[in-house]
Specification:
This protein is mainly α. The protein contains ten helices and three strands. It is a multi-pass membrane protein.
Length: 318
């Protein structure tokens, strides 16, 4: 596809992924990633179902959690099915339009999730520090507005970053050393100087990642000061347990995203990029429902009720 001697341009990319691994290793990776993908889809789907149908979970926290699971489903579906296909077929080519679309969805959903996590931290702050005003502050209209804001900025940001990535022609090597189209890698394949686009993406990452992180840190600093100052030991334990679930998700997601988009490209390489890419595209979406569910009695109870209704419906249909 690329011939530098006659100046032809790139019309498709080759996702290197795990093609250099042995066939047995690729078969093992296929089985592992298929299991992880299926597990993540099932658990996130269950959370979406119970948070949107169980009247006992009719609160802003579970409203946000349902949308977080929906974002996780979108996120893993954008990258993992294609990776599974490439693990069993020899042709790893991806058209220019498909790469652009995939990158837009990764950016859009990823940024929306960053913002939503910050709003979830703010929700916990209001619930713990202003319990008497919680219902008024976090009304249904406010929650809808916050979720809409996360989606809006995510989708708009995706347009900007897609433009910065694909604004110039591509006439270099068309091999992407990852299992999906990741912007910093694709930019280095363009004909022109990639430094301007990389600097714009770096600046965007500072705004998109650090701004929500500041809100999260402020929210939890005030939560910590509040519960240490007035809560009983049992109340502290329950509050810490609830907040620990959210903080664990934040650490997983933000750490991997910051490494991918805020580190100098000189420190990157296939052996470093792939593990962090897997962390925020596969592991985090799978861990989110586990982290939130196993540490939350209400969620576990809702899951038991949902599974019980399903078993009863199946028994009645026989």
């Amino acid at each position: 596809m690329v011939d530098l001697r006659n100046g032809s341009t790139v019309t498709e990319f080759i996702l290197v992924g795990f093609e250099q691994s042995s066939p047995s290793t690729q078969a093992l990776l296929f089985a592992v990633f298929l299991a992880l993908y299926s597990l993540a889809m099932a658990m996130n789907g269950l959370i979406i179902f119970i948070t949107w149908t169980d009247p006992r979970l009719n609160s802003p926290m579970y409203f946000f959690l349902g949308h977080l699971s929906f974002l996780d489903v979108c996120f893993i579906t954008t990258t993992i099915p294609q990776m599974l296909i490439h693990l069993v077929v020899q042709n790893h080519a991806l058209s220019f339009a498909s790469c652009l679309t995939q990158m837009y969805l990764v950016f859009g959903v990823g940024v929306a999730e960053c913002i939503l996590l910050a709003f979830m931290a703010y929700d916990r702050y209001v619930a713990i520090c202003h319990p008497l005003s919680y219902a008024q502050i976090m009304s249904w209209h406010v929650c809808m507005g916050l979720v809409s804001t996360a989606w809006f900025f995510g989708l708009i940001n995706g347009i900007l970053l897609d433009y910065m990535t694909f604004r110039g022609p591509f006439c270099r090597d068309n091999h992407i050393e990852n299992f999906f189209c990741e912007a910093p890698i694709v930019i280095t394949l363009s004909c022109g100087d990639p430094q301007f686009s990389l600097r714009v993406i770096f600046a965007d990452a500072i705004v998109v990642l650090l701004s929500p992180m500041v809100l999260i840190v402020i929210s939890y600093a005030r939560i910590l000061a509040s519960i240490l100052g007035r809560a009983s030991s049992s109340g502290r334990g329950k509050t810490f347990s609830t907040c620990a679930s959210h903080l664990t998700v934040v650490v997983f997601f933000y750490t991997s995203a910051m490494f991918s988009y805020m580190n100098p490209r000189s420190t990157h390489g296939p052996d470093k990029d792939k593990p962090f890419s897997l962390l925020y595209t596969v592991i985090t979406p799978m861990c989110n429902p586990v982290i939130y569910s196993f540490r939350n009695k209400e969620m576990k109870g809702a899951m038991v009720r949902a599974l019980g209704r399903t078993s009863l419906a199946q028994a009645e249909s026989i």
